[in-house]
Amino acid sequence: MGRLLILILSLFVSLQVQADEQIKVHQVAEKYFSAVKSYDVSVLAGMLHPEALNKFRSAFDGAFGGSKSEQAQKDLLPLFSVSGVQEFNSLTDVDAYKRMTAFFAKAEPKLLEIMKSSTFSIANVSVDGDVAYVNYSMTMKINGSPLSQDSVQKFKLFNDNWLALLPPSGEATITNLNTRYK
Predict the structure, then answer these.
(1) Nearest-angstrom CA–CA distance, 119 and 88
(2) Which end of the chain is more exposed for a tag (fewer CB within 10 A), N or C?
(3) CATH number for the domain including 171?
(4) Coil, strand, or helix at residue 48?
């Protein structure tokens, strides 16, 4: 009887811890989506996992050091408001991310308006060890018509905080860079 009670209590505690983590991830995801919606570059950069920032940065490092380095420099350095690879290399991962994100905000002001009117709806949160998966739906109006997309945003624990990994669009950007400039 005593072993059964211990097993039941252990299961209850385990389920409670899992539920607590899901609530934490849900709250972090809401903050993250709010920053996406308002295009708050500083908040977004602060919510990205160092692993994501490093992966983002490494893709550009690879492009600048690849066989098509000259073309990569011509095409990509302006995204960071730098004049050369040495200046780019002096940027932190966070600063590089902020600069590129700010570049797109300036280059595409309509994007900011679209993002402001977008909505994010979290459908499900699941936690598997130190990685959480947030299934969500994003709806935005393009030329007055709503366009919805379902996606998954991953978060990973870092120093007891849930931080975002690269979104699917970020992963696609890395793939495109690797294909085009290496």
Answers:
(1) 34
(2) N
(3) 3.10.450
(4) strand
Global pTM value: 0.84
Write out the DSSP string of 116-128: HT-EEEEEEEEEE
Domain total of the chain: 1
Domain hosting 112: range is: 2-181
Strands 145-158 vs 131-142: parallel, antiparallel or unpaired: antiparallel
Give me 97's structure tokens: 């991310």
111, two tokens? 């994007």
Neighbours of 114 (CB within 10 A): 16
pLDDT tens, residue order, the chain (182 aa):
666 555 454 444 444 444 588 999 999 999 999 999 998 999 999 999 999 999 999 999 999 999 999 999 999 999 999 999 999 999 999 999 999 999 988 888 888 888 888 999 999 999 999 999 999 999 998 888 899 999 999 999 999 999 999 998 899 999 999 999 97
Residue by residue, what is the 3-state secondary structure of 97-114? HHHHHHHHHHHCHHHHHH
Q: Are strands 145-158 and 119-128 parallel, antiparallel or unpaired?
A: unpaired
**What amino acid occupies position 3?**
R
